[in-house]
Write a structure and sequence with these properties.
Three copies of one chain form a homotrimer. By secondary structure, chain A is mainly α. Chain A is 73% helix and 0% strand.
């Protein structure tokens, strides 16, 4: 990709990191955690998924150990986020879900793309995109002693799967990386926003025994 | 080992993967998870232990990223399993525990053997066998917000330890790999089945304070 | 460092391993776990943090797979610890917290130092020191189905941060490794002991919604 596109991508990733970190801050606040707990929940939400991905694909370095800016974004989000979350004047309710959907889209494509660059099959790459998108939130929920939201509610991970499949298939049929990225991100973003807007969810599987 | 033995071993491993995945499906059903949650619980149960093992011993590749068949087995089990679990006509009650004990035996020996092939000591190899056998189920239980069953109930992990020790010691005294595998698997399988049949358990350690 | 210092350091590390393992034994006892559960909780508390650190920094070997003595210390602690915990005559109450603070100090410096030796930035090294010190206890608490203590109560992880920052900065300004180690360990130890003695804690962040 061209330098400009690379740059937009990188800053979008940092933006997604901040949004995911902020969702960790909100959970920490509900559990009355201390400052360290806020940072930990922000960090696992924001970089937990990417860390697991990097370990499994055997990346040379876990991404945030090579580029400290991710940690700084988390730290600043954890500190500022505590005040922002308590402000009386609020943003419109849809801002945070939209930002989260955008973060989910970029995390998914970055994860899928990184796995492909390490030579995995398309199927494994899609799984890595999903892990990048949702595993951090799952660890956050486990630390907060909740059944991970993503396993029970609205379409969330499914949006990652759609985006990852769109991206991988687009590349496979020879579409340019930039267009494939657009398609993949749009797939994840639109399905996620639609799920929020119309409360779409997968049918629950229930064994009453 | 000869090609035929290798082949039997490989298909047994896939069978164990399906059985472990199905146990994840059952837990997901009790928690009313959606389709994605079913797949995640099936996957962590089936390949969680082997993944942790491969990361810790520093395997060149995590096994399921190199051979996509494991993911397909999990996906098919997660989809078919939801229907099988709801069928009115049931298999005899002992089929699933027997299949699970077989899966535990094969996972244990595969984990112990892989660790040894990476040059670990016998003790570390036994630990890796145990991790391969039980860690996936522990993650499943944590995601389901339960204290992992394996830490509290019936003899389960102890059967892995027995099998791993039998296998490692057999190799150490010069028994052929095939026979050592048989001994190790039988050790795990028989102790586990006996524990189910006669409700054997280790004494609980209780601090009432 | 000189051989004598190396040796003192190594045995201190094993002592910290035993103390952390014992804290796992106590939690297992409250949950009425069986013998295997006691060993697992002892092990994850004692070596869980160092394992995550070694995976993330990409150490050639996870430390306890290269030196089996750690596993033996855990095994012996898990077995003896069950009896010690039930003895009617008790040690003075402050012995265990002091030992734990010492273990925290040594784990923090070892983790920070190991990360630096793999070429990480100072900030990442401090994070690795914190992970080495507290991640094992967090896994223990998650397995015990509790919100990790370290996220909510008294100053604990903050003591790791202080020690890691002192150590890293000392090295950066040219202080000898031995003195930097002393400073770092003292920083962690004293802040932790002070937190216990005067019940110091960070303010909780609470969102009442």
């Amino acid at each position: 990709m061209q330098p400009l596109v690379e740059s937009v991508f990188y800053w979008s990733d940092l933006f997604g990191t901040a949004v995911f970190a902020f969702s960790g801050v909100l959970v920490a606040g509900r559990l009355r955690m201390d400052g360290f707990g806020v940072i930990v929940l922000a960090a696992v939400t924001a970089i937990g998924g990417g860390t697991i991905r990097d370990l499994i694909i055997g990346a040379e370095q876990v991404f945030w150990t090579a580029d400290t800016l991710y940690l700084w974004v988390i730290l600043v989000t954890a500190l500022l986020g505590q005040y922002i979350a308590q402000l009386p004047r609020r943003l419109p309710w849809y801002i945070l879900p939209l930002a989260d959907a955008f973060g989910l889209a970029i995390f998914t494509i970055i994860g899928t793309d990184k796995a492909l660059s390490y030579g995995t099959s398309g199927m494994v790459a899609v799984v890595m995109g999903v892990i990048t998108g949702v595993a951090g939130g799952m660890i956050r929920d486990v630390l907060a002693r909740e059944v991970p939201m993503v396993l029970q509610r609205e379409i969330y991970a499914t949006a990652c799967i759609l985006g990852g499949v769109l991206y991988t298939c687009s590349l496979a049929i020879g579409i340019t990386p930039l267009l494939a990225t657009m398609l993949g991100m749009l797939g994840t973003f639109i399905l996620r926003v639609a799920a929020i807007r119309w409360h779409l969810s997968l049918p629950a599987f229930s064994l009453n025994r």
